[in-house]
Amino acid sequence: MAKSLGHFSSLVSFTKTQLSRQCARLFFRTSVRRTVMRAVPSILSPKARDFSLPNPSWGDEMMRLYNHYNQQGGVDPEGGGEQGGRWTRLPSYNRSLKYAIGGVYLSKIIQSKARLFTRNIQQAGAAFEYVVFYTNDKQRCVCVLQAGHLLEGPPGHVHGGAIATMIDTVTGSHASLLCAPVMTANLNVNYRSPIPLGSTVLIESTLGEQEGRKMFVSCKISSSDGSKLHTEATALFVSVGVSHLLRG
Ligand SMILES: CCCCCCCCCCCC(=O)SCCNC(=O)CCNC(=O)[C@H](O)C(C)(C)COP(=O)(O)OP(=O)(O)OC[C@H]1O[C@@H](n2cnc3c(N)ncnc32)[C@H](O)[C@@H]1OP(=O)(O)O
Q1: Which domain of life is it from (predicted)?
Q2: Domains of the chain and any CATH numbers
Q3: From its phi and psi, is residue 91 left (phi > 0), alpha (psi between -120 and 50) or beta?
Q4: Which of 38-47, 171-180, 205-214 has the lowest mean pLDDT?
Q5: What are the tens digits of pLDDT across the range 96-132?
Q6: Is ligand 1 within 6 A of the CB of residue 92?
Q7: Closest ligand 1 atom to Cα of 169
Q8: Cα(13)–Cα(39) distance, integer angstroms
Q9: How many angstroms separate the alpha carbon of residue 188 from the centre of ligand 1?
């Protein structure tokens, strides 16, 4: 009896081991397949969503400014003239496509669920709705931002961290246009007047000095008609090698 119970328990434990191995294999195969099936189209598909294009959540002021800057040959409202006075829209995706296509990051990105912080809210209009334009000489960028209801800090106004995030994003995108990849080494923010939740504002980024790997950028946020200054900032970006990003 004891012997047959011993056989039975060995059989159970053998079966359990086999089953758990099979389960592990099946789980591994299924989860890898799921991950690959979900990730590959969004990384490799030529139809990755460009978040810088209008969507139905964009209000009248957002659309007016988008059309203003997006017009072919639209001119700099501050009179930049021919040189650097025309604006080009910067496409915006929620993944680091550039490096994924290069291959170096492919496996790392497929296995992660990484998404760009400012582009990961599913509900259109709820958080950061923005589009960045840059001048031909890449000395200036302007971002039109519509700040959604999930960005609240003080009641009825935008959170200071969300403001800093947008400054980092715009100045970082600006610096990346000139020398990618870059990392923010320093960011100084002066909050001058609160930004009403739901409002549309302009974030302007201007390239300052460049010293070797260092790029100094200044930035200001103002109301869409330019009458009110909300925020001023300066940032330092340092260009890094891809290996710096892989260090973890
Ligand atoms: C299209 C794409 C869309 C992309 C759209 C998305 C854009 C979003 C952009 C977001 C960007 C981020 O948030 S990045 C995430 C936040 N940042 C980080 O986590 C960075 C963490 N820090 C680091 O990794 C490192 O400290 C670095 C990379 C900043 C610098 O390290 P390093 O490469 O070893 O260089 P290092 O020799 O230390 O410094 C180089 C030079 O910079 C100076 N330096 C370094 N740090 C500082 C500092 N805080 N303040 C002053 N100066 C500094 C040094 O004195 C030196 O000057 P000299 O002696 O040469 O004169």
Answers
A1: Eukaryota
A2: 48-92+121-246 (3.10.129.10)
A3: beta
A4: 38-47
A5: 655 555 555 666 666 567 789 999 998 999 999 999 9
A6: no
A7: 8
A8: 37
A9: 14
User: In whole angstroms, what is the distance from residue 233 CA to residue 216 CA?
Assistant: 11
Mean pLDDT estimate for the chain: 79
* ipTM of the complex as predicted: 0.98
CA of 211 to the centre of ligand 1 (A): 13
How many CB atoms lie under 10 A from the CB of residue 60? Answer: 8
Q: Note the pTM of the prediction, 2 decimals.
A: 0.81
Q: Which of 115, 174, 183, 187, when mutated, tests ligand 1's pocket best, judged by the most ligand atoms within 8 Å of its CB?
A: 183
Q: What is the DSSP letter of 149?
A: G
- In the chain, beta strands by DSSP E: 87-90, 128-135, 140-147, 182-191, 200-211, 214-223, 229-239
User: Is the confidence at residue 62, as pLDDT, over 70?
Assistant: yes
Sheet holding 229-239, edge to edge: 87-90, 128-135, 140-147, 200-211, 214-223, 229-239, 182-191
Measuring CA to CA, which residue among 119, 240, 228, 243 is closest to residue 169? 119
Q: Residues with catalytic annotation?
A: 168
Are the beta carbons of 135 and 86 closer than 8 angstroms?
A: yes
Closest residue by Cα to atom 36, ligand 1, is: 238
Per the CB < 8 A criterion, the answer to whether 234 and 164 are in contact is no
Please name which of 181, 144, 163 lies closest in space to residue 62, comparing C-alpha atoms: 144
Atom of ligand 1 nearest to the CA of 116: 6
